Amino acid sequence: MQWNSPEHPKMTLTQGQTRPVNRIFCIAKNYEAHAREMGGEVDRAQPFHFQKSFDALSFGPAVRYPSHTEDLHHEVELVVVLGQGGRDVTPREAKDLVFGYACGIDFTRRDRQAEAKAEGRPWEMAKNFDDAAVLGMVAPVDEVGHLEAGTIQLSVNGAIRQQGDLNQMVYDVFELIAYVSRVQMLKPGDLIFTGTPSGVGAVERGDELRCQIEGLPELSVQMV
Length: 224
Ligand code: MN
Prior knowledge:
By secondary structure, the chain is an alpha+beta fold. 17% of the residues lie in helices and 33% in strands. Strands 3, 4, 5, 8, 9, 11, 12 and 15 form an eight-stranded mixed β-sheet that branches. It has a five-stranded mixed β-sheet with strand order 6-18-17-13-14, with no helix packed on it. Residues 26, 75, 77, 106, 193, 195-196 line the site of manganese (II) ion (MN). Manganese (II) ion (MN) binds next to loops.
């Protein structure tokens, strides 16, 4: 049997080089205000995560509005890019696995997610589709250091919709890496979307989205 194996997309670094993306892990409910706006609570016992396929990744600027939804939501997130893998790492060890950071958007079919929650189904339909994850330019730690505080925001057509601070994350970047490494062995090129602040909302075709995280290159996309 023969088939063409899909190519892993390549992320772009601030200095112009590229690196292959491996897997995409996404953390849910990592900002208290967002957990509340979704009618839930943060789980203090441990984080909660899901995955998107690597070929669901887009680098913009055009993002295709997906089928099967009339309520596509934006979620701006800090993305951690791993340069090294590991299993069962401690938060202290996790620091050494980080290659860099980027702005990202976790697009969500909110109507499908509400149904999944109500019916006790997986979030697959809500979270995994073409262009469901968007990644900006990746800034290496060598250049920007570790990002533990700073404004994170998203505007739609010039109006600010989401605004928060990285220091509002319930589980910090290193705790998240440690958590995922207990669930699955982490590998170089893995991405972890670290959750979104409050203010999520719907987008329409033609909307211009601008994501800003203090210290990182901006990410601008247009819905098509
Ligand atoms: Mn999210």
